[in-house]
Write a structure and sequence with these properties.
Structural class: mainly alpha
Helix content: 40-55%
Largest sheet: none
Low-confidence stretches: none
Strand content: under 5%
Radius of gyration: 12 Å
Number of helices: 4
Length: about 80
C-alpha cells in the first residue's frame, strides 16, 4: 500500500483512505489502489493552492472513492 502525501484531521493518509474503500464489483489490485492514491494526492496538491484540504472535501464528496472509481471505471482501456 502506498501511504500518500496528505492526511486528514484523524491522521489517516490518502493511501489509508483509499485502502479503506470497500465496494461491490471487481477485486481492486494494489496497482489500482496506488494509482487512485496518486490521483488523490495530485488533486489535493492542486486544492492546497486554494487553501482546501481533504477534510474540506469530506463534508461534500467522497474524493478518495471518486479517485478509485476513476481508476477502475473512468479511463478508456488502451487499444
Amino acid at each position: 500500500m502506498i501511504i500518500g502525501r496528505h492526511t486528514d484531521r484523524r491522521g489517516r493518509s490518502t493511501g489509508e483512505r483509499v485502502a479503506a474503500i470497500h465496494r461491490g464489483g471487481p477485486t481492486v489490485t494494489d496497482a489500482q489502489r496506488t494509482a487512485a492514491t496518486r490521483l488523490l494526492d495530485a488533486l489535493l496538491d492542486a486544492a492546497a493552492e486554494h487553501g482546501a484540504t481533504l477534510d474540506d472535501f469530506d463534508g461534500t464528496i467522497d474524493l478518495p472513492g471518486g479517485c478509485l472509481d476513476v481508476v477502475l471505471y473512468g479511463r478508456p482501456s488502451a487499444a
